[in-house]
Every structure is written in C-alpha cells, then in structure tokens.
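>> Question from a student workshop board

For tomorrow's exercise we were told to take the sequence and the ligand below, predict the bound structure, and bring the output to class. My setup keeps failing. Could a helper post the expected result so I can at least see what it should look like? The ligand is PXG.
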Amino acid sequence: MDDAERKTRVGNRPDLSAYWMPFTANRQFKAEPRLLVEAHGCFYRTEDGREVIDATSGLWCVNAGHARPEIAAAVNRQLLTLDYAPSFQMGHPLAFETAETLAAMTPAGLDRIFFTNSGSESVDTALKIALAYHRARGEGQRTRLIGRERAYHGVGFGGISVGGLVNNRRTFLNLPGTDHLPHTHDLSRNAFCRGQPAHGVELADALERIVALHGDTIAAVIVEPVAGSAGVLPPPKGYLERLRAICDRHGLILIFDEVITGFGRLGAPFAGQYFGVTPDMMTMAKGLTNASVPMGAVAARREIHDALMQGPAAAIELFHGYTYSGHPVACAAALATLDIYRREDLFGRAARLAPVLEARIHALQVRRNVTDIRNLGLMAAVDLAPREGAPGARGYETFVRALAAGALVRATGDTIALSPPLVATEAIVDRVVEILGEAIDSVA
Ligand code: PXG
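>> Workshop helper replied:
Here is what the output should look like for this input. Compare the format with yours to find the bug.
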C-alpha cells in the first residue's frame, strides 16, 4: 500500500456503527478509533501509516509472528483442494494428521484430541467430557466443576461459571454446582517477585476443603497454569504439584487451560511440561494456528477417551461437536504453524528470550505508580495503582500513550500485560519496555 492509497483508506474509513465490538468500550473507541491495517513479523501498521511493535502477539496468539508465508500458502492450497468436509460421520485426512501431530507435542498420555474453534469452546468441551467420563464409569453424581478466583476461561456459560472475573459473571446466569479456589496473588508476600512466587503453595489446600464440603460430587478442577487475563499470575512454587496430588487422591479430573500458556509461551510446548505436572485434560486455541484461522482443541488422557468408547459400535459415544470441528483450512494452518515452531525451535527461542524480558520488565519497578511486576516465560505484567475514583483510567491512558509511541501493549484495568511473539528479539523487548516505561511516567 503506498502513501496515496493509505490516505484514501483513512479518508474512506467505513462507518463504525454496525460493528458491536467485543470486550471494548464501544463508544469511547468509536469516538477515537484505533485501526490496524497491516501486520508483518512483530509489527503492525496503523491506518495512518505508523509502525507499531506487537508486544502482545495479537491477543496472546500470534506466537510465530504475523504474515507467515508458509501458513498463507498452506491455507490457500487447502481452500482450493478441500475447502470443507462435514465433521459429523465423515472425515478428511488432514484432521487425523493434525490430531496425530498435536498428540506428539502434548504431555505423555494426553493423546486423544477433540477439535473446536476457540478457547471458550475448548473449555466447555473439556468440562462436558469430564462429566461424560464420570457418568460412563458409573459416577454420574460427579457433576460439580471447580474453578478459581480471577480465572479467565472464555465466555461460554461453562467458562464464565468456573471463571473468576466478576464482570464476566455477574450479568449472566451461571451454572449451578460450581465452586472456586482462592486466587494465588499475594502482594504482601510476593510483590515484585521474578518468576514463580516463593509463597502460597498452601493455597492449593483449599481444594481439600472444597472436597470435604462437596464429597464425591466433584467432577473436575480447571485452572490456568499461569493466570493470563487476570494479569499474569504465575503459580506459587509447588502449587500445581499439590493440586495434582489432591485431584489424584479424590478422583478429580484436573484440567489445565493452556489457551495462553500453550505453544511455547513459557519456553516449552505446554505449561504441563514446563512445570512437570501433567493434567488429565488440557484446552488449547490461539497459538495452535498462529491465530491465522480460528481453531481450538482439547487433549484428553487416553483412558478418558477409552472410558467413553463403550456400548454398540454404531452408537455415537459423545453427543458433542461443531460444524467446524477439524475444519480443513484450520488444520492446514495448524500443521503449517506446528511445523514452523519445530523447524525454527521457537519454544527454545522463547526460553532464551524470557530472562531478557524478566530483567527489563523488573527495571520498571522505579517508575511512577507501579505497585507490582510479575513475569514467567514470555508473559509479563505491570500493575499500576488505580487513580482515586477512576479505576482503570491509568491503565487505559498508559496503553493509549504506548500505542502512540509505537508499542501495542494490553491493558486490563490498571494492569499492563506484555506477551511478545516468540520470534521477538532482545532489541524489540528493549524498545517495548522503554516505550512502556515512558508511557507509565507520562500518566499522572
Ligand atoms: N481460556 C483462557 C486461559 C484464555 O486466556 C480463553 C480461554 C477463551 O478463548 P477464546 O478463543 O474463546 O477467546 C482465553 C482467551 C487478554 C485476553 O488480553 C485473553 C483472552 C482473550 C482475549 C483477551 O487478557 N483469552
């Protein structure tokens, strides 16, 4: 696009009123729109022609960087070869190949893959599989679902019910029979800690109390190994191990929601491998296709899958699925993406860049109004003290200033999160943190 064209594009900006934007302050946005028109590698271009560093991998999803030609070619080829095939009672080779490739990356034993189109669908799918599994084993009384405070598990009714963000829950009907673990953010003991906090393993014991309260009526426990949307909350040392032990003791399915932590964000394929704790099921989306085509997946332990393969062979074993489960174009995108991760050793690259992000982000401790900083792998967050009477204003203004100065960061409330692409460089991380530091200092 040349400059003349770009100007025309701005001049011809479409009417903004019909599009009801998700998780957006629609009126504020439409009064002062922020439109992106191109993306390559670690950079976006705005409609007024400015280059902006993508310090958030889109929304934690474009792990291999934007506009990868290999993915574009695979998608194009697939569209012209087999653009769609029915997903119920019919198949196509690519779905099987994608499942097999993915199963080779997941933690040992989690090698049965169910495809969805998003993280929200993956979460609801995993919760439903947990109920079906217990019922198939004659434990149909196990219906309760346990989540955690401050968790984000997408926006389906299942996901918001086990989720722990009040704004996402309070307007809507929640599923009955859910309960929540306490969140793990303990500012009094763990402020400004680097990586996993030292304190808080005992917070996992809340699960014992929940089991004592509900007995054998609990089906599953779902947690983000590192809480993402709530502002990057790494688990205290030993916490996930303890949750695993308690689930084993009481026959509960442990689900890791790896929608953000999957595909190299922590420098390993999945958080399960990074922490050395294997869940019974895991949910994925985002980085599975490098966000090029919507796709999600659930990986289940083989025993969970096998427990449902009962009854007459002609019987449908799980009454669940989507028109677009294993969509051929999404599969083509996923295979091309997984190939890039492997060929370019992007998870190794993320592991090597993580200490750089840690060192740089913690240098922001001296900046104005900063109350906490957290990091793990290529995830980091900076908390700002809320302005009196205007929670979220400081976070939003910092985000807007950083964008104007050339870096797209993510603000939720007064927390600024960074999740750079795995292909980012030390220089890019340096520049992002420099821009963020100046933006923080410029906001009163
Ligand atoms: N689980 C987790 C852990 C997530 O982070 C979902 C499920 C839902 O995925 P879908 O594909 O249905 O959106 C998510 C999504 C942010 C942010 O900046 C995070 C998400 C989405 C958008 C913004 O915190 N996570």
